[in-house]
Amino acid sequence: MSKYLCICGAGFRKKKQTDDHIKVYVDIWPHQVVKRNWRGRWIDFLIDSRRYWKFTGILIIYFTITIHFGIKLTIWEGLAMGIGMGLAIE
Q: How far apart are alpha carbons 21 and 61 in whole angstroms?
């Protein structure tokens, strides 16, 4: 989860790393670094974490079975099935 983001797509955690990046690549292409706000960094943390994808995968599979196929599972059956599918996907 980077705090500073360059327009070339590189992310950095510390200001010193960004300064070194700009010094190295200033002749090739003008680089500009922006400081990201905490909301954007929080969203990146959620999306990049495995727990987020496991949770959404469990929900998608559960709702697909219950709504699309019409099979009404208890929450425990759906949870066990979702965890099993999440572990099988990885």
A: 43
Q: Are 28 and 37 in contact (CB under 8 A)?
A: no
Strand order, beta sheet including 33-35: 11-12, 4-6, 33-35
Residue 88 corresponds to which tokens in the numbers above?
Answer: 């099988």
SS3 label, residue 31 = coil
Q: How many CB atoms lie within 10 A of CB 82?
A: 20
Query: Can you give the pTM of this predicted structure?
Result: 0.42
The span from the CA of 78 to the CA of 63, in Å, is: 9
User: Quick one: tokens of 53?
Assistant: 């994808």
Q: What is the pLDDT of residue 70?
A: 83
